[in-house]
Amino acid sequence: MALQWYPGHMNKAKNQVQDRLKLVDIVLEIVDARLPFSSRNPVLEQIIDQKKHIIILNKSDLADPKVTRDWRINFQQEGTNSIELDAKHSKGLGQIKSLIRSELSEKIERYENNGVQNYRIKAMCIGIPNVGKSTILNRLVGKNVAVTGNKPGVTKNQNWLKTNIGIDLLDTPGILWPKIDDPKVGMKLALSGAIKDKIYAPDDVAIYALNFLETHYMDQLQEAYGLTNADIFNHTTPELLMNLTKKFGYKEDYDRASRRIIDDVRKLKLGRLTFDVPGEFYEE
Ligand code: G4P
After folding, report:
1. Which terminal residue of the chain, N or C, has fewer Cβ atoms less than 10 Å from its own Cβ?
2. What is the pLDDT of residues 146-158, one digit of tens each?
């Protein structure tokens, strides 16, 4: 089943972002470090291009560190600076302030040369649901200011928030849904937990995951489930899912095995993984 995505919703969010762009000096685009491509919103990308902006690769504690570095190089080559963040464990927050100050150095220098004191930098956080915007806001403001939840659809505060890094933050306007043109993007969002589990059948997501793991993380896959080469080679991915179901002792309950595989991926049983591969999206 495809994710319901309404152009009307997207246009509303796009207009709200566009209106608020005038109010801020810089945009902080939050993405999931496991999905630096799939968790970006291409519609927003176009409009925030008009503004200074940085990319925050949040949940970097869950992502493959080597691939995160590759993505940062990739973004830099495209002209956008980025940082790695683990907002959940408050790691990397200091870098937000330094990167913002370096991006806005000319403006800050003008303020300082003109003797303007107590100036406040104004920023806006944007990102699709579940990338960690509320968590980041809470860390920067130092108290619970927005609802943190895993379920997209919770209305968030849209106030100016004074942060402990000398920056005023405007929260995301409305809900900025991901734009899923490519079914692979949908699978990756489902696998990471960014979209509701009931949107895709668990066996589709598990087969997508197993196939991706076979291609990119074979060692982790074999180690996590004690698989030999004979278990993997000369078998299709659906056959691998069937074999794993048996191995787990779930008889023919493929959905149960699929949910377990998805859960194992999310809970790092297979180690830190990144599902978007730099370069992949530019070759297609
Ligand atoms: P949103 O506002 O963008 O929708 O996202 P939100 O902050 O609500 O975060 C969504 C989930 O992601 C939360 O998990 C949150 O704890 C988790 N999260 C946010 N930042 C990070 C991070 O850097 N690393 C990791 N590992 N997780 C992060 P939850 O299960 O809904 O809540 P909780 O049980 O963790 O509190």
Report:
1. C
2. 543 334 444 444 5
Q: What confidence tens digit (pLDDT) does each residue in 50-72 have?
A: 789 999 999 999 999 999 999 99
Residues 34 and 164 both lie in one domain: yes
Flag whether 185 is in a domain: no
Query: Given the CA of residue 91, which atom of ligand 1 is nearest to it?
Result: 23
- Residues 103 and 119: their CA atoms lie apart, in Å, by 16
* Tally of CB atoms within 10 A around 284: 6
Nearest CA owner, ligand 1 atom 28: 88
In a domain, 177, yes or no: no
Q: Is the CB of 130 under 6 A from ligand 1?
A: yes
> Partners of 58 in the beta sheet?
32
- Given a contact cutoff of 8 angstroms between Cβ atoms, the answer to whether 178 and 134 are in contact is no
Give the single-character DSSP code of 194: S
First to last CA, the chain: 23
Q: Which of 61, 84, 130 to mutate to test the pocket of ligand 1 (most atoms within 8 A of CB)?
A: 130
Residue stretches of the chain with pLDDT short of 70: 1-7, 144-158, 172-175, 281-284
Residues contacting 217, CB < 8 A, separation 6+: 270, 271, 273
Query: In whole angstroms, what is the distance from residue 238 CA to residue 242 CA?
Result: 6
264 and 142, same domain (yes or no): no
Residue identifier of the C-alpha nearest atom 14 of ligand 1: 150
